[in-house]
């Protein structure tokens, strides 16, 4: 499984830093939904799902977290530690986000609007969907 991490271009001076993200330039899809997670309690694991169509970029804009990516055959853990790096998560990839620092804010850029029918929330059904069971 290939892990794609984007390094976004920070722009800064004595005033601070700025990162601008543009669809099809910095992000490989049209951004249709943006959301973020924060105040995640210690020990909480989020995600536990895959998507049939939706693609995402995950950016830990503050603090740190880890992301487990699973394509049904291989698993990889990716650390997100910098606000100018983004993790691409393709469709058909099971994801679990965990080990959130107390101050973490995880921003998610999604290629589609929310659609419950696009979610695969059962791991065995995910394995069937990707042809590994």
Quickly list its features.
133 residues; mainly beta; five-stranded antiparallel sheet; globular
Stretches with pLDDT under 50, minimum 5 residues: none
Strand content: over 45%
Residues in helix, %: under 10%
Spatial separation of the terminal alpha carbons? 18 Å
With helices defined by DSSP (H or I, 4 residues minimum), what is the helix count? 1
Protein structure class:
mainly beta
Spatial order of strands in the largest sheet? 1-9-6-11-4
The topology string of helices and strands comes to EEEEEEEEEEEEH
**Total strands:** 12
Largest sheet composition = 5 strands, antiparallel
User: Nearest-angstrom radius of gyration?
Assistant: 15 Å
Can you describe what's shown?
Helices cover 5% and strands 46% of the residues. It is mainly beta. The strands form three sheets. Strands 1-9-6-11-4 form a five-stranded antiparallel beta sheet, with no helix packed on it. A five-stranded antiparallel beta sheet has the order 8-7-10-5-12. The longest helix has 7 residues, at 123-129. It is globular, with a radius of gyration of 15 Å.
Question: How do the strands and helices of this protein lay out in sequence?
Answer:
Layout (H helix, E strand, L loop, with lengths): L3 E4 L2 E4 L2 E4 L13 E6 L7 E6 L4 E7 L2 E6 L4 E6 L4 E5 L4 E5 L6 E6 L8 E2 L2 H7 L4
Antiparallel strand pairs: 1-9, 2-3, 4-11, 5-10, 5-12, 6-9, 6-11, 7-8, 7-10
């Amino acid at each position: 499984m290939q892990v794609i991490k984007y390094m976004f271009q920070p722009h800064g001076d004595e005033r601070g830093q700025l990162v601008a993200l543009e669809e099809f330039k910095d992000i490989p899809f049209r951004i249709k939904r943006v959301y973020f997670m924060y105040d995640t309690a210690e020990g909480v694991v989020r995600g536990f799902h895959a998507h049939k169509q939706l693609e995402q970029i995950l950016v830990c804009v503050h603090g740190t977290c880890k992301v487990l990516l699973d394509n049904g055959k291989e698993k990889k853990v990716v650390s997100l530690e910098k606000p100018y790096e983004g993790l691409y998560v393709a469709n058909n990839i099971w994801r679990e986000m965990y080990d959130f620092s107390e101050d973490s804010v995880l921003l998610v850029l999604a290629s589609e609007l929310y659609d419950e029918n696009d979610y695969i929330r059962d791991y065995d059904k995910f394995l069937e969907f990707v042809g590994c069971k």
